[in-house]
Amino acid sequence: MKKSKKPSQKPKQLNNLARLSGVGLQMGATIFLGAYAGKWLDQKYPSDKNWFTIGLTLLFVAIALFNVLRQVNKINSKNDKTN
After folding, report:
1. pTM (global) more than 0.85
2. Given this model, what pLDDT does residue 3 score?
3. How many other CB atoms are there within 10 angstroms of residue 35's CB atom?
4. Residues near 57 by Cβ (< 8 Å), separated by ≥ 6?
5. Is the dihedral of CA 61, 59, 31, 48 positive or negative?
6. C-alpha span between 23 and 43 (Å, rounded)
């Protein structure tokens, strides 16, 4: 009798971990760019409040969350196909 070999889960887990490890940096960079652009616009077009900074930061937070959810769904769909 031959024993069937189970595929190792470690490479898949490490691959997923590597993909998710950059998510925090990507989110931080995206939000930073939005805040930086907002500050620049607020300096160029001054007003009582920093509306550009507030608006662009919130917009880029939403974009960053959307990208994270898309990446996690992509990873989950790949894992579902292999199982």
Report:
1. no
2. 59
3. 19
4. 31, 34, 35, 38
5. negative
6. 30
